[in-house]
Amino acid sequence: MREAIQTLPGSKIREVANAGLxxxxxxxxxxxxxxxxxxxxxxxxxxxxxxxxxxxxxxxLGLPELREAIAAYTSALHGPLDAGRIAVxxxxxxxxxxxxxxxxxxGDEVVAVVPVWPNLTAQPxxxxxxxxxxxxxxxxxxxxxxxxxxxxxxxxxxxxLLVNAPNNPTGWTLSRAEQQALxxxxxxxxxxxxxxxxxxxxxxxxxxAAPSFLDIAAPDDxxxxxxxxxxxxxxxxxxxxxxVLPPAALPAAGKLLEFNSSCAPVFVQRGGLAALQxxxxxxxxxxxxxxxxxxxxxxxxxxxxxxxxxSPPGGLYAFFRVEGEDDSLAFAKRLVAEHGLxxxxxxxxxxxxxxxxxxxxxxxxxxxxxxxxxxxAAAIRL
Length: 382
Hints:
Elements: H1 3-6, H2 12-19, E1 27-28, H3 40-51, H4 64-78, E2 86-89, H5 92-103, E3 109-114, H6 118-126, E4 130-135, E5 137-139, E6 142-144, H7 147-153, E7 158-164, H8 176-189, E8 192-196, E9 223-228, E10 241-244, H9 250-260, H10 266-277, H11 279-302, E11 307-308, E12 317-322, H12 328-339, E13 341-342, E14 344-345, E15 356-360, H13 366-381
Parallel strand pairs: 1-13, 3-4, 3-7, 7-8, 8-9
Antiparallel strand pairs: 2-10, 5-6, 9-10, 11-12, 12-15, 14-15
Helix pairs in contact: 2-12, 3-10, 4-10, 5-6, 5-9, 11-13
């Protein structure tokens, strides 16, 4: 067994969730998904595909019609983009691993903005890369980037800059000026940018989508943008994602897809196609519901004594801390055991998140959030 695997920490979110398994009384907000089911047109398209017997292998890079639809969807958000830059993957996390496999190896340096979903920093570590962590820092509950610090960390020896924005767990989002500064700097250092932009549509800043590197980058820039159908299309269990790559990188992506998963299931891809075709009929409504949930939860958290929180500009999460509760894993386990409230410990996202808790507010019934707030209030009063 490789040492990199043996020393890889397990998921602290799963550790908390496992403590609540089999209990019907737990309000679970620990995972990053809505409790709304996938829209009916998407489910119907997949069912029809299965009924037609579409159960065989397909092209490594994805169905041509799905790649064209992804290109059209992306072009509507960020300007013209050719399907020859699209590779379909079996989930967003698989797309991220493909990007890492394509770009980094033993001893390479990867700079990551943290705290962040732990899979992002684990993947380059699995491949033997050295991960340099540049932290966001909280100011009155809101997380901020020190741009000068990040630029100083990215040097000609940096193979990849890894950025997730809107960010899981903090909701922090890059500004257009910050993106331009990072892109210009990485052009000078020869560094690849891998941008995890899966939450771009779950953005509350008054635009259809959060700022994207695709808005400002040239097709041949050293940029890989990763997306998923999970969050914006309510398809977490379907496992379907995509990458936007420079055209010259597409053959390499095809080879890696062959050696990792061969292809995404055709019936799942048919569901993805239906999701894109009907996106504007349900995504704006989903975002509006999520914003209402965010506002309700953040207001409730603000009202509790000793709680520090800010309203996130994007994503599915309120990231907050409770005064005196510095061990987030122990606190999260106690909330499950004693109060039936399931939250993700901030330590799951790296040492920068220690002392904080992540609450996924994507609930179709806002009263669940109110009940959760009552349980948290009871825990704080003890």
